[in-house]
Amino acid sequence: MSGNRAAAVTLRTARRTAHPAAWWGWALLLATAAGRTANPWLLLLIVAVAGLVVTCCRGSEPWSGAYRVFLFIGLSAIAVRMAFYIVFGGSDGPTVLFSLPSATLPAWAAGFRLGGEVTAEGALAAAYDGLRLATLLVCVGAANALASPRRLLRSVPAALYEVSVAVVVALSVAPQLVAGVGRVRRARALRGNTSRSPANLMRTVVSPVLHDALDQSLALAAAMASRGYGRAAGIPAPARRATSACLLIGLMGLCAGAYVLLGAGTPAPIAWAVVACSAAVAAFGIAFASKRVPHTRYRPDRFGARDWAIVASGAAAVAGTVLSGIYEPAALWPATNPLSVPELPMWAAAGILLATAPALLAPSSRGGAP
Amino acid sequence: MMNPGGIAFDHVTFAYAGAPVLDDVSFDLPEGEFCLLVGPTGAGKSTLLKTVNGLVPHFTGGTMAGRITVAGREVHGSTPADLADLVGYVGQDPLAGFVTDEVERELAYTAEQLGVAPAAMRKRVTEIVDLLGLADVRDRDLAALSSGQRQRVAIGAALVAGPAALILDEPTSALDPTAADEVLSTLHRLVHDLGVTVLLAEHRLERVAQYADSALLLVGGKVTAGSVGQILAASPIAPPVVELGRLAGWPGPPVTIREARRHAAPLREALAGRHPAPPAATFKPARRKSPASESGPPLLDARALTVDYPGGVRAVNGVDLVAARCERIALMGRNGSGKSSLLWALQGTGKRSGGMVAIGGDDPAARKPAERRTLAGLVPAEPADLLYAEKVAAECDGADRDGRVPVGTCAKILEDLVEGIDGGTHPRDLSEGQRLALALAVTLTAAPPLLLLDEPTRGLDYPGKAALASRLGKLAEAGHCVVVSTHDVEFCAEFASRVVILSDGEVVADGPARQIVAASPMFSPQVEKVLPGWLTVAEVAEALGGNGVDGVGTAGNGTGDGAGT
Predict the structure, then answer these.
(1) Major location, coarse class (chain B) (predicted)?
(2) Are A228 and B161 inside 8 Å of each other by CB?
């Protein structure tokens, strides 16, 4: 018994190490690094780093398989990008691989060319582009595999609680759908149904899966309601309205700030001023609303030194690409015309390698679950 | 006079549209009562339970009249969330109702919603953990728990807010006998320790009746209240021990095995020298050591069958199973002992990692799905998975097309299995028993000699289970080999000629049903506990009728023989 308890205590400390927000931060920084380059070596390195960290750090939860799913989505993104290049064309070069019958749309239809010559240079550029997109997707997949969406929910401010629960429930539908598809496909095999016609798939796979997902969501909603979610008892109506208003104003302020910042028309000082004001409004609104919200939290996750280290390792990857952008910009965006083997930018590569640090900082707690 | 602490219904009527589900229901449960809600499938038990915490009508719609009070507080006009501190509700499938992913968080969820201060919350969660015996798993993921532990977590989560009433809808329907016992004895202790009023609906009365203080019978929208004995004596749905008591004319009738044993001596004497009639006795004359000595090769021959899952989990570990036509095999074992994995691997659609399976000499896994289902048919745990169409008639036509058999085959099989299903009904609107029959008919359309059913009795009441057992018995007589995985010991007693017990993926016992269940306190049916050597009330009734003694002579006819291992 005491041995069990001791094991449980170590398990708890192990589990508490990595904050889900830290994983999302790390993954998004890695994605930012990927967005700053089209160098295939760097992109593949990022995919490998994400894969390594996921393998070392993920738990045994249902969403831990997300990395693989996103890897496949990434591969299909490359395939789609290539298909688009072949059909619609893009950058061209002298090395013609093969020719397709071509048609040029009239000028009023934007003068698109369909088919035509497929060149090695164009294909390579399309592949780099697809790989970049795939890498971004893989980074998101890594975050999904590492951070439980449900734990992330516990870290949002109390005022956003109800919104975030809705988001988390929506997120958790995805793994349920995956499990549902597996079950329904097995049942389909039991009926000897192997037809691949879309109409048949729609009727025998998609419709039962959606039906199940809907049933499950309703069951969950009923369970949450019976356990007090969305409870209004004990708060006077004016206070509730004031809380909602503060929250709404805060969120609108954030949106306005983001719009002004992204829109090119506003002079920078004014944009920043608007952003600062709206952020203040948002912070005040959320803080005020959070005070009014009657929920409490059980053992909230703390953002500790280890979590900062994880985020910092992600930031190192971005810093690496920034340094490479200064000292060796050509290597970050390798030319495809003429064809050449791209070089590996050292700064960026070093930064991305630093992003493997979480594999050592927060190894998996997988051994704890039987 | 209303009871201040308990649950009171005062002329409650509820209807969706048309005929009322609850019709002028009045009863009064005192504080701290453990009350059992009894009724046939589809009588509206779940609806009644959900009215207590407002899920009906808030989540379902419908019109409601009358007054429901819990601990003196009126339920009408409050949402389920507002009642969370007053009524704890535990649904049928605990996993579907979990909001978080860790035991402790799940326990704390309700307290978080109620805004309990963090320090008080920690204390309460710890108390609940100790009360429900969850100390060893409090840091685990919910997904890693056994089903009994999950159910206890669900109960604990409902109790954290300190509610006056606890409502449970079939809390043990998915559990094996051991886990069910664990959950029910925990509940029983809670009633004593916390004084919470418990209202519980359950089909498997044999598990629950002994714990309850009182019972409600819900039939046709009307509720009758009374002591457990009174209610079960009048109920169309009663556990075997009560049926036995009715048969023998015992006063009460007794609802627990202990009470029944006290009355059993005269009945035992009357039965002395008699033997249970077939079909359950078919094993005794025909015990053969080797299947090779039979007239033909066995229908099913599985050797060293192994099923591994990713992550190093071995669900089935070197199982040998040989079965002939006409055998009725019950596969028993705890949750997670590998029963489902074994069935799926035998059918061939589930992957196997090692060993061989031959059905009539053919390996089903090597065949295409369409051919595979002519060797072995499997009705999955969720029979609705097999059904796609919007109407029963369309479903039957689809099954005919899938199986490339003459039009009308499936409809005819369905008609033989259960009469009077309207072809225009949506499969999801059928009762559990009818839906199961439809899935069975769809499976039988391919005429597989081996028929596998995964947990078919969930949600079936006693008449439904008896009907299923007799249908499957007829199929076995017609030459099918029927293998059923089940937790339901009473169903097993009615159905099986042979019992195979799995534990951790290995066969730990295999033999004639009578011997195996008699040897295991966990898997023996109630009648066997009262009258050793007898499995079902029907057997006893037949023997007492005087014509049961010639049973041995008829053993060879029809119901066939089994292969001992």
Answers:
(1) membrane
(2) yes
Interface A–B counts its CB contacts (< 8 A) at 177
| C-alpha–C-alpha distance, residues A19 and A155, integer Å | 9
Q: Which residue of A has its CA nearest to B311?
A: A60
End-to-end CA distance of chain A: 17
Of all residues in chain A, the percent with pLDDT exceeding 90 is 18
Query: Is residue B332 predicted with pLDDT exceeding 50?
Result: yes
Residue where a domain terminates, one of A230, A254, A281: A230
State pLDDT tens for residues B119-133: 999 999 999 999 888
User: Looking at the structure, do residues A26 and A138 belong to the same domain, yes or no?
Assistant: yes
Please compute the mean of the pLDDT values over residues A194-223 and round it to a whole number.
85
Mutation target vs B (from A191, A295, A302; most B CBs, 10 A cutoff): A191
Q: Is the pLDDT of residue A343 over 80?
A: yes
A241 within domain boundaries: yes
Domain count of the fold of chain A: 3
- B160 to chain A: closest CA residue: A227
Mean pLDDT for A229-256 is 72
Nearest C-alpha of chain A: how many angstroms from B194? 19
Name the nearest CA neighbour of B508 among B317, B344, B313: B317
Q: Percentage of residues in chain B with pLDDT exceeding 70? A: 92
Per-window interface: B 403-432 vs A, CB < 8 A = 403
**Residues A328 and A347 sit within 8 Å (Cβ to Cβ):** yes
Residues A130 and A180 both lie in one domain: no
B151 in reach of chain A (CB within 8 A): no
Q: Please judge whether B369 and A299 are an interchain contact, meaning their C-beta atoms are less than 8 angstroms apart.
A: no
Question: pLDDT tens digits, residue range B360-372?
Answer: 989 999 999 989 9
pLDDT for the residue A43: 94
3-state secondary structure of A196: coil
A41: which 2 tokens? 């070596």
Widest CA span in chain B: 74
Of residues A253 and A359, which shows the higher confidence score? A359
The answer for residues whose C-beta is within 8 angstroms of residue B77's C-beta and 6 or more apart is: none
Q: What average pLDDT does chain A have?
A: 79
Same domain, A238 and A215: no
Tell me, letter by letter, the H, E, C secondary structure of A88-157: HCCCCCCCEEEEEEEEECCHHHCCCEEEEEEEHHHHHHHHHHHHHHHHHHHHHHHHHHHCCHHHHHCCCC
- Same domain? A262 vs A248: yes
Domain ranges in chain B? 7-238, 382-447
Residue numbers of the domain that contains A177: 161-230
If asked whether residues A237 and A280 sit together in one domain, one would say yes
Of B125, B141, B402, the CB nearest to A298: B125
Nearest chain A CA: its distance from B419 CA (Å): 23
A174 and A246: one domain? no
**Pick from A216, A224, A369: CB nearest B140:** A369
Query: Considering only alpha carbons, which residue of chain B is nearest residue A230?
Result: B81
What CATH class has B7-238? alpha beta
User: Domain boundary at A295, A321, A346, which?
Assistant: A295
Decide: B143 and B101 in contact? Cβ < 8 Å: yes
Taking CB atoms and an 8 Å cutoff, what residues of chain A touch B386?
Answer: 187, 190-191
Q: Mark whether A40 and A113 lie in a shared domain.
A: yes
β-strand partners of A104: A113
Best of A2, A204, A207, A226 to mutate (most B CBs within 10 Å, chain B)? A226
Residue A235 is predicted with a pLDDT of: 62
Q: Is residue A117 part of a domain?
A: yes
pLDDT at residue A49 greater than cutoff 90: yes
Contact A189 B139 (CB under 8 A): no
On the question of pLDDT at B2 being above 60, the answer is: no
The dihedrals phi and psi of B322, each to the nearest 5 degrees, come to -120, 130
- Looking at the domain assignment, is residue A53 inside a domain? yes
The closest alpha carbon to A60, from A146, A142, A135, belongs to A146
Q: Say what the ipTM of the complex is.
A: 0.85
Nearest CA in chain B to A181: B385
Over 60: is that where the pLDDT of B556 sits?
A: no
Q: A220 and B97 in contact by Cβ < 8 A?
A: yes
**What percentage of chain B has pLDDT greater than the value 90?**
57
Which residues of chain A are within 8 Å of residue B96 when distances are taken between CB atoms? 216, 219-220, 223
Judge if A224 and A239 occupy the same domain: no
